[in-house]
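Support request, please re-run this one:
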Amino acid sequence: FSVKRQCISFRDVNDNMISPGRKAVVAFIGSTVYNRHRPHSFRHLQRQQHHSATLPPPFFSVCHPSIAWPPADDDGKSSSSGVPYRRSRLSMAASSSGRSGRGGRGGGGRQRQRRRAYNYNRGRRRNRTDARTGHAPTPPPSPGQPGRECHRSCVTVGADVFVVKKDDQRTGRETGGVVSRLLTRAMYHSRGIKVMLECGAVGRVTRLIDDDAATMTTMIPKEGERSTIPKKKMSLSDYLREEGVDEKLSLVLMAAADASSKVAAELRRLPLVSDEVVGEGDTINVQGEEQKVMDVRANELFLRALMPCVASMVSEEEEDTVVGYDHGYDDADDGGGGARYAVAFDPLDGSSNLDAAGPTGSIFGVYRHDDDDYASAFAAPPRRSLVAAGYALYSSSAQLVLSVSDHKAAGFALDPDDDDSTYRLTNPRIACPQRGRYYSLNEAREPDWPDGLRRWIHDAKRGRTPSDITHSARYARSLAADFHGTLLGGGGGWCGNPRPHLRLLYEAAPLAFIAEAAGGKGSDGTGDLLDVMPDGLHGRVCCFLGSKLDVEDLEAYGDVQQSEKRYEA
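Re-run finished. Output below.
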């Protein structure tokens, strides 16, 4: 028989190298070659085993130095220490065959012989004990208990599970999905059952959802070990709930965040679409600027997301106020949907960076809406009616910064593994340094700067400002990106534009609101931006945002506001 496939229990008392009850492989070396299609050819050898103390050497030879053929008693049973003779699969098949080996009364044919041998060995495998402990296998944990992800009987096809792929073992990032195939054959694996999900991901199960108990279990690390599975950070909706934000205001902020996540998704696909989407469009917006197709697309996404939950909207791409669907009935059974608020937004700030895959952003401010005049929310200084503000930055990752009060700002990041485009908390309290070492503006406009601004830049480069800090310049051509670097870049300073170019309601005022909540300041060069009276829906102002003491030093120089001028680039 085949040496690679057959193992039989033996005992030989004549060989000192062979211990009783050991297993080994033997090879048939006689003059007759075994035919695997005729297992009954060995029948005379099986009979000789029961009636002879030893077999002649020409027939068998030991291939492993552990065994020899066992001696037998007169009754044909093994006499080795009470160990009963255990028939192998070969002997089962051979002894059950008929004279012809091809059917008839004796054995029922070759297929029946193989089936009987298979069923016999399968029963032995099913009833075997645990090889490590010598005891019967332990039953799997009941629903709700830890460790169920390690038992094959608990992880079934169609179950909702979380797995860690091989490439993500170092970071511990999980992938969720439905099991389509079980890849671990053993009934237990200490690191989790290996499965394939319907999405094609392959990994070991770390968590599973039990339909009966409706609970989720996690893999418990051993004592002294540290789990490699990081916990999910707080989502934006949970953060707003924990902060006690008004339900209607939360609905508005979640709608703006959802719109920004869709804009981020569109920007990720932008290099793969036609050049017409990236290039200039055929229309001119109310600012007299030529629109890109992506400007229009981002505006549509924000309008569609905010329309059901606000009273009115103002957009950089729209000339007039856009009226929302909800008109402010607070006694509605569904909570009113946020009709007490109006939103002003810039759907895509820095769209000139799209050609070079540079950073872009979205800026929005939420204003209180109290009467039937849809434009009244935007007619007063922002400090009176601005209740929340935020901006999204689209760069190496999608970041969202929100402030729902005048003393706290928080940062979030878009979770790329979440199908629901969830923002998760990354910085619960953003603090802008009181002084910094950076300034951010377009220095190519230096010939048109006023004297006070030119003197401050001259002194800042040489460390002669009241802070005695030598400043450096950086400029990203996107207000959201420049402000984000000033707020979180570790250097502080200020960013902005000395000429009246930025719109107050949906660019300057929202960022000034966030700056003050983080401990910074927003100024137009002479006073607080939040106290400036709006000059229409698209009124422009000079803007300086950043570290409080640096902005105050700049104001002290005086004459920092540049006259209005339009540039080609």
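The two ends are 86 Å apart (CA to CA). The chain has a mean pLDDT of 76.
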